[in-house]
Amino acid sequence: MIEIKVPVLPESISEATVAVWHKSAGDHVQVDDIIVEIETDKVVLEVPAEEAGVLSEIIAQEGETVGAQQVLGLMSEGSEIQDNEPEETESDPETKEETTSEPEMQAEDETDDSVTAEQAPDPQKASTTQVNTPQTSSTSASNRMEERVPMNRLRKTIARKLHSATQNTAMLTTFNEVDMSAILSMRKSYKEAFEKKYGVKLGFMSFFVKATVEALKKYPTVNAYIDGDDIIYHGYCDVSVAVSSDRGLVVPVLRDAHKMSMHDIEKGIIDYAARAQAGSLTLEEMMGGTFTISNGGVFGSLMSTPILNSPQSAILGMHKTQERAVVVDGEIVIRPMMYLALSYDHRIIDGKEAVQFLISIKDALEDPARLLLKV
User: Fold this and answer.
1) Of 190, 193, 285, 183, which Cα lies nearest the Cα of 243?
2) Is residue 368 within 8 Å of residue 219, measured between CB atoms?
3) pLDDT tens-digit readout, 100-121
């Protein structure tokens, strides 16, 4: 017998949940077939077959909590399958007769019941049927059904972390707005050349990541976090990018974002988004991060208050770009505007610093040449 075990979990993860079995007991399994998926606090781990065989027994059921290296199921090796096949094909003649006769008896019983009901209906039974029928239709048409579904491990982790952030930090949000005219104009002028050279479209996120990185260099406290009675400062910018998936929100990290070019940022985000939907992100790709950017604008959000991604001290919320009437040089004009929101931990970041940080991002986006000149 081959034991199917939980993969080795990272040091920060002590347990996982059996998400879904892709094979049932008795199914043939080829090498590298995905047998079962294990859900941790952050990612879903696939457990492939290392040898061919037949899944003989499922020990840990879906929804069950398991630990590292715990046995999930048993699989018969290929040689054992061939030895067992003759036993499976053999059958007892007496058993065959019993099996054959039982359906026939059931069929006779069903026929007798139906004939009796048609030929000699019971008045009491008819009366009961007339009373019960309206109740059944009323229940099915009411549309007031409820269903209790347990949260998966990822959703429980998200809920716990968000609740912890609101309870254990002095969270405050400051808002500003940015005129997106310059970026939209630049994208229109260079999008074809950019895509032709780098094989990826020029999006908004690369501008925001670059602007954020330059602002983090000017205000390092926004890139730091509290650890006990200490403040941990980072000499690098690992930017977490919030990505939505079917299982919930995940935040993969762009490592050393301060060293990345715009096309590298775009490629990284597209890759993370695709693998988030496929559930193939690794734990290492979502651990760490010194600052987070969340783009609610892709869902149509006009303004919101993002919640901190602990232990980070700040998060930038992007929103929908919408044409609005604004005053420029004493005149009312129509411009594509976006609201920005910076939520921050007031224990470590002062209000003045938070506002200046957000204005620095605004200035860089409204004049993209600042990103090239780094001023």
Assistant:
1) 285
2) no
3) 444 444 444 443 443 333 344 4
- Would residue 361 be called left, alpha or beta, if left means φ above 0 and alpha means ψ between -120 and 50 degrees? alpha
Known catalytic membership, residue 346: yes
Q: Which of 263, 350, 363, 367 is catalytic?
A: 350
What domain range includes position 197?
153-373
Residue located via tokens 């008896």: 105
- The reply to whether 350 belongs to the active site is yes
Its pTM surpasses 0.70 = no
| Alpha carbon distance 87, 100 (integer Å) | 21
Does 15 reside within a domain?
yes
Count of structural domains, the chain: 2
Residue 260 is assigned to a structural domain of this protein: yes
pLDDT (tens digit per residue) in 165-209: 888 889 999 999 999 999 999 999 999 999 999 999 999 999 999
Q: Residue 51's closest CA among 67, 74, 72?
A: 74
Residue 232's SS3 state is strand
Specify the amino acid at residue 39: E
Q: Verify that 214 and 315 share a domain, yes or no.
A: yes
**Alpha helices, DSSP H only, in the chain?**
78-89, 93-119, 123-141, 153-168, 181-198, 204-218, 262-278, 283-286, 351-366, 369-373
Which of these is catalytic: 246, 345, 346, 367?
A: 346
- Of 73, 89, 92, residue with least CA distance to 81: 89
Contacts of 163 (CB under 8 A, 6+ apart): none
